[in-house]
Amino acid sequence: MKTIIAFIEPVGLAWLGLTALLAALVWRRRWREALLLGAPWLLFTLVLCTPVPSCLLAMLERPWVGVEPARLPAADAIISLGGTGEPSANELVAFHFTQGADRLMTSVDLARRGKSRTLVFGGGGYFRGGAWESEADAVKAWIDSWRVLPEPVVSLGLCVDTHDEALKTAALAKERGWKSLIIVTSASHMRRAEATFRKAGLDVRCAPCNIRSSLLREDSVDWLHPPHYNGMDIFSTWFHELLGSWVYRWRGWM
Predict the structure, then answer these.
(1) Number of domains present in the structure of the chain
(2) Cα–Cα distance list, 106 to 4, 112, 154, 160, 224 (Å)
(3) How far apart (Å, rounded) are the C-alpha atoms in residues 136 and 122?
(4) Residue 105 has what pLDDT?
């Protein structure tokens, strides 16, 4: 049943349609058109039907596998980068958690372990009701209302990107006299985040989380499976980091 559903979902139907068209071109020996269509079909197949996206993402995540929270030294502050979720008036807790919610859980866990008394949240913004709302402010409000931690958390406010988070953290560290920091973010994003924060003059330790590559989470992997949108999502994450690193190096941010 799961296999049938995979082929009738939008991504599966698109792959089937592309496959049928390619097969028709080959049958009619229209080699030129088949060659032109074959390239996107191959890319589509590798991304949707094989663990190739997970292999690519694993190259970014593998260096951060095995970091043990207990061995992380204490720091003046824990910095949780954005991507946890977004404000939502339609949720009972007024907040919608996304795939990056591991960042929130990991940051809170480190604070509860006594790695720092200060927890700082970054993040982007969301336009709602004619005004921008800060992800960091929403996370702070949620934690404070639930009294998850004995100390109030700090919000960096509306941040444009990781570079902006690093600059605002550097200003806050200078103001409060922080010497060492722990940064929490997804393992795939950690390399760029660490380099950006160090470029801003900050002494950071890394607490990676949100490992998404199936090669690093599962004992066995199917090397060929029905098309699934998750492959597109993982490939997009890898490609985003690839382009992001190029742009950050070009702009001198890392």
Answers:
(1) 2
(2) 37, 10, 16, 22, 33
(3) 5
(4) 94
Q: Are residues 118 and 51 in the same domain?
A: no
Q: What is the pTM for the complete model shown?
A: 0.90
Q: Which residues pair with 133 in a beta bridge?
A: 126
The residues near 35 (Cβ < 8 Å, ≥ 6 apart) are none
Token pair 């197949």 is found at 45
DSSP 69: G
Q: How high is the pLDDT of residue 51?
A: 93
Residue 215 lies in a domain: no
Kind of pairing between the strands at 125-128 and 119-121: unpaired
**Claim to verify: residue 88 and residue 52 sit in the same structural domain:** no
- Domain holding 55, by residue range, is 2-61+224-250
**Per-residue pLDDT tens for 192-250?**
999 999 999 999 999 999 999 988 887 677 788 889 889 999 999 999 999 999 999 99
- Give SS3 for 185: strand
pLDDT band at 128 (very low <50, low <70, confident <90, very high): confident
109 and 175 housed in the same domain: yes
Angle (CA) 122-124-130 rounded to 5° is 135
